[in-house]
Design brief:
The complex is a heterodimer. By secondary structure, chain A is mostly helical. Helices cover about 75% and strands about 0% of the residues of chain A. Chain A has helices at about 5-15, 20-30, 35-50, 55-80, 90-115, 120-125, 145-155, 160-170, 175-190, 195-210, 215-225, 230-240, 245-260. In chain A, helix 7 packs antiparallel against helix 8, helix 9 packs antiparallel against helix 10 (about 195-210) and helix 10 runs antiparallel to helix 11 (about 215-225). Chain B is globular, with a radius of gyration of 20 Å. The chains are: A mainly alpha, B mainly alpha. At the A-B interface, helix 1, helix 3, helix 4, helix 7 and helix 8 of A face helix 2, helix 3, helix 6, helix 7 and helix 9 of B.
Chain lengths: ~260, ~190
């Protein structure tokens, strides 16, 4: 039985929609399967929680006020701890001069010792930007409304939901390049990011070839290689991306410079 | 609302009607006291923040019961509620990583617990529900309001009823996963 079928059975049980025979069989199953029993109990309790909208709204209010309170508290603490207001203009100038001197020494030292080289994961962190997926993307998926809902979920940073929607669509439209690109981006933004799945989607775009998504896919694939410390693969892809005149080309050149 | 004009009944009335100004005032006046209470009892500031919020929600539910009567000052009552909540959490921790001195063990044994376990569980469920995306919250809420799948599909702008059902399933599964993965859920199961 698929997980969705079990879910539907639980819902029917809780709503009293099972026949007498089905109910007895299900209760026997519950008696012998503690995990299922736990799930049924959770379903029931969750329904009660959602139905009690008034308490839910109140808890939301308490959490919102709590966030505001903590933010204000942090601001006040930062203000109290800030030494700047106790310093004279002359002291500030001296402190600033000293700071510049220290930074210069550190920079010179790092340059001389070539210690400013970033690691692969650091380069990834420095260069990875969330791609701006928008509603104007032209996908050829059969269920366009669902695709747009996936984009909406992505835009509202609900990346788990976006992945769910795009994966669902990919079952029927696995060869759609735009969908593959959206899926890769959603994987990369999940917490934690799903690099292996993102790589598979990006590779599909590259192998297919001929679309405007190829250089972008190469750029993101190169970044994943950097994250995995696979520097040779990363460099090879970056060299290809660097050939193009767009923003990714410029970025690739910059990262190559940092790798050398 | 100027501080000097607020009395204990004003706090209770403000909680009862969900007044953000009163809630904000309770944070300003009593958050520090609850942090000190929890920190004294081996808790962290984060623990205290949760206890504070859980305490407010518990009072919200109590004041809506017909037999509710405030027999002390608001601070005394709120402090007792939060202390009970924290003691209850601490009891569970006692068997694991926390080592208590004799005095604290005695306090835990003496302190009565009133319906806190259930509140703690529901507080966690609500907290996780509020962390779901807006669409998920809406679809689950609409379903429990007995809105038909066709109407939910229209309201949410989905392509088909089967897809709407799938979304509802995914949202609920996600919520259950979030709850089960939370360390508090594990504690509640013990």
């Amino acid at each position: 039985m698929s997980s969705q079928s079990i879910y539907e059975k639980i819902e029917a049980y809780l709503e009293g929609k099972l026949t007498e025979e089905e109910r007895k069989a299900f209760e026997a199953q519950l008696a012998s399967d503690p995990k299922l029993a736990e799930k049924v109990s959770l379903y029931k309790n969750i329904d009660q929680v959602i139905e009690d909208q008034s308490t839910l709204d109140f808890q939301k209010l308490v959490q919102e006020q709590g966030t505001i309170f903590l933010q204000n508290e942090q601001k006040e603490t930062a203000g109290e701890q800030s030494p700047i207001r106790f310093l004279s203009r002359r002291s500030l100038l001296i402190a600033a001069s000293l700071l510049i001197l220290v930074i210069s020494i550190v920079l010179i030292y790092q340059n001389v010792n070539n210690q400013d080289k970033l690691s692969g994961p650091e380069l990834y962190a420095q260069n990875f930007d969330t791609y701006n997926l928008n509603q104007s993307l032209r996908s050829r998926v059969s269920r366009l409304t669902d695709f747009q809902n996936g984009i909406k979920a992505y835009q509202s940073q609900d990346y788990d939901l976006a992945v769910n929607i795009f994966e669902d669509l990919a079952q029927n439209d696995s060869d759609d390049i735009v969908l593959a690109y959206c899926l890769a981006q959603a994987y990369l933004n999940q917490q934690p990011a799903q690099f292996a799945k993102a790589k598979a989607s990006l590779r599909k775009i590259i192998v297919e070839g001929g679309s405007i998504y190829v250089p972008k896919a190469k750029w993101y694939l190169a970044l994943i290689h950097l994250q995995e410390e696979a520097l040779v693969e990363a460099k090879s892809l970056l060299e290809e991306v660097a050939q193009s005149d767009d923003q990714f080309g410029a970025k690739a050149k910059q990262v190559l410079g940092q790798l050398d | 609302m100027p501080v000097k004009e607020v009395n204990s009944q004003d706090y209770i009335d403000g909680i009862k009607r969900g007044d953000p100004v009163v809630i904000s005032l309770i944070y300003k006046k009593y958050h520090k006291a609850i942090v000190q209470l929890v920190e004294r009892m081996q808790g962290t500031k984060e623990d205290a923040h949760d206890v504070f919020q859980e305490g407010l929600v518990l009072i919200y539910q109590k004041v809506h019961q017909s037999n509710f009567e405030l027999t002390s000052s608001f601070l005394t009552y709120f402090y007792a509620v939060c202390r009970n909540i924290w003691y209850n959490k601490l009891r569970k921790k006692t068997n694991r990583e926390v080592t208590l001195d004799d005095k604290m063990i005695l306090m835990l044994k003496e302190e009565p617990v009133f319906g806190i376990e259930e509140n703690e569980q529901y507080f966690l469920y609500r907290k996780m529900f509020l962390r779901l995306g807006r669409d998920c919250q809406k679809i689950l809420d609409l379903f429990l309001q007995k809105v038909s799948m066709e109407q939910i599909m229209e309201q949410m702008g989905y392509g088909s009823v089967s897809y709407t059902k799938k979304r509802k399933f995914l949202c609920k599964e996600k919520l259950i996963k979030m709850i089960q993965e939370d360390p508090c859920y594990q504690e509640l199961q013990e």
